[in-house]
Amino acid sequence: MMVHGTVLLLTVLGFLLLALTHTRGSLQHRLSLFWLKGLFWLGWLLLSVALTVAIGFWGSAQGATLWAGYLSAGAGLVFLCRVVTNRYS
Amino acid sequence: MIAPLGRHVRQRMAQLHRWTGLLLAWLLFAIFLTGTLSFFRQELTLWMQPERPFLQETIKPEAALEHAYQYLQQQAQGASNWVIRLPGERDGLISLDWQGPEGRGEARLHPVSGETVHVRDTRGGDFFYRFHFQLHYLPVQFARYLVGIAAMMMLLALISGVITHKKIFQDFFTFRWGKGQRSWLDAHNGFSVLALPFHLMITYTGLVTLMMLYIPWGLDRAFPEPQQRQQLISDVFAVLPAEPRVGEAAAMVPVSSLLARARAEWQGADVGTVQISNPGDVNAKMVIAAQAGQPDRLGISGHPPFMVFDATSGELLRTKVSRPAYAAYGTLLGLHLGRFADWPGRWLYALLGAAGCGMLATGLLLWTTKRRKKPDHSRFGLWLVERLNLATLAGFPVALVTLFWLNRLLPLDMPARAQWEIHGLFLVWLAMLLHALVRPLNAGWREQLGLAGLLLLCLPVLNLVTTDRGLPMSMAAGDWLFVSFDLLALLLAGLMFRCAKKGRAA
What we know:
The structure holds two protein chains of two kinds. By secondary structure, chain A is mainly α. Helices cover 85% and strands 0% of the residues of chain A.
């Protein structure tokens, strides 16, 4: 259960950084290019760490499968959060 | 009319996406929804048979087998075949099936006491599982072809959709509220792109699962004789070919020694099924198959390993073949079934399946939203799609919830009870179709979604008054399956009411 939570958290944080640095109107006008690039690559790094954790605990077959699923779930959660925040902000 | 491919590949792909996505989308929605529910096949059966005791004990397979043997020797002495399913994480009872001179028999035993547990006649979660690849009322072969065609169209729609989507990464997190057609497109993209690996995997592996039916020519060529095909089936599946009894009684070897041997072979994995053909006869054979859902020991393959023994001498006759192509097939099947997944993994599967339903639903609604603005579009075509959308996207969920209601309301001693639960589902679905045809569209959406919400809202109450497994009792007992079913029903009821209130779903 802890591993599921960790992988999900890492993918959510990874996609959150990707969304904030890659989408117009988020952090693009507030941070310098250096920071934007840094956070963008940190997002990818977190997704890679999630894959490493998943494979490390579940083995390559189950780990890669569940990681792919958690990528969708993480991206979906970030998408949903952005929808809700855009709607009510 | 789909024009030939030229320089405008994206536009052509958009046409392909539009029509492959539309033509069987209603069927695909029903397949996706029931397939999503199938990830909880065992859990749904447990809920639909509330007579099953809530079990928390870990049972030794040897003890469970002892109960099974005692029962079968008393009740199915002359049977040609015994099948014993041992208790597992997802189903705590011992399940017995046999084929005797008087026909097929089945029983469920309490794993601790060995007493018979009488459960109501229902197809349970198996109905959803079977429906999602062979539908109902239709000849099985025809239905499987139809599902295969639908899956192939889905695969085409997915691939053409990716090619069509110009800004797939740029629009990754984009959603614009209250923009009509644009919002439906963003929602459709969201459901599709975010869960794209799952959609591609589940559609492709779904086709692979029935590939012998869809592309049988390789098999026909390699194994032209029926005996060769029978041999192939025996080699790859845990089944025993029907063999006659010799008629000479013989004692069977203690199954515990064979269990230990099988477990040692499978890195300690638990045994799931024991099948014995011609029990008590000198020609008795025994198949021991591992339980699904042990990825740490058996990987994610959808074909658990098995061993076939001579039941009188204990001699190992054969084991599951190990060939790369068969292993690849097992892995693809395992990915589709998701039986390797623990409960968070199953929820993940179910959520992504729900995203698939969302993708189909938003695609269908987008189709109508777009065409409503085109004055030259066929009014009848639009009317038909709008009504089918209503009857499927709102009506089918109403019918599914009705199945759970009927499971609680139909008399327990009703003849063909399990069949009538399913007849009820289809009758309600038919009623929803008629309702969709006669009511104004917006009112239709409000009423059907409202009805789905109402049925879901009252389901925990119905469960409380008709069983002793209501929410308070389940919470007190720590029976999280029943608790989560009730809570999920309430959550989905809220979602349905919200959609009904919006009233703009159409």
